[in-house]
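Project outcomes to date are best conveyed with an example. Our students and postdoctoral researchers have been running inverse folding experiments weekly, and each run begins with a structure described purely in tokens. The record below, which covers 211 residues, was selected by the lab manager from last quarter's runs and is presented without edits.
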């Protein structure tokens, strides 16, 4: 089918724009991976996307498919959303403010990735799904406070306990893992609680006793 010159030029501009946006997404994914202290192999374990494919995505050596984008974004705790063009500046402003949040230590991120990988191995043992779901919930809750962990050794015992679950009869071991995760999560929550300060009154009501 014949295309006019203006149509061809329009198609090229559209393709260039799409390529630019894909490269911008690839840069964002790579930056977030590095910010979390994850290697491409760690991200591959979390997302299920082959490490070789992640490498090609980050170097713009392959088209970024929606399925890969969704898997990588989920693994990096990012959300994919379509927003009105007018709202983009506000969204970018909020995103920049989030970027100033406390960063997860690289060693902590590696331990979290190791625990995540070991949990994937446990899922392949056909362990009681209810117990496994409980452990997964505790793990998810614990991850929300990983930026507060300053000693990676706090995660070592959890990883070691997961390694002991080597067969379908490892329910008791999994329950202990859940307890350890819950205990760590609770400790981190208490660290995150900041005492509230109340302003002193600038006046005194009639009848108040002097302190």
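After processing, the design step wrote out the following sequence:
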């Amino acid at each position: 089918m014949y295309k006019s010159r203006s149509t061809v030029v329009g198609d090229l501009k559209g393709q260039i724009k799409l390529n630019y946006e894909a490269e911008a997404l690839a840069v964002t994914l790579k930056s977030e991976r590095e910010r979390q202290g994850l290697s491409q192999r760690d991200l591959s374990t979390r997302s299920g996307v082959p490490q070789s494919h992640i490498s090609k995505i980050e170097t713009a050596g392959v088209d970024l498919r929606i399925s890969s984008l969704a898997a990588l974004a989920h693994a990096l705790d990012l959300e994919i959303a379509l927003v009105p063009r007018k709202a983009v500046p506000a969204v970018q402003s909020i995103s920049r403010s989030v970027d100033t949040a406390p960063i997860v230590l690289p060693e902590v991120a590696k331990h979290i990735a190791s625990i995540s990988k070991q949990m994937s191995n446990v899922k392949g043992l056909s362990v009681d799904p209810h117990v496994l779901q409980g452990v997964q919930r505790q793990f998810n809750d614990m991850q929300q406070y990983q930026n507060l962990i300053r000693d990676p050794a706090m995660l070592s015992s959890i990883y070691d306990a997961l390694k002991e679950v080597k067969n379908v009869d490892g329910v008791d071991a999994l329950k202990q893992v859940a307890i350890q995760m819950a205990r760590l999560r609770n400790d981190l929550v208490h660290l995150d609680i900041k005492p509230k300060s109340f302003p002193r009154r600038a006046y005194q009501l009639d009848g108040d006793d002097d302190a």
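Residues 9-99 form a domain with the 434 Repressor (Amino-terminal Domain) fold (CATH 1.10.260.40). The chain has two domains: 9-99, 106-192. The training component of this project remains on track.
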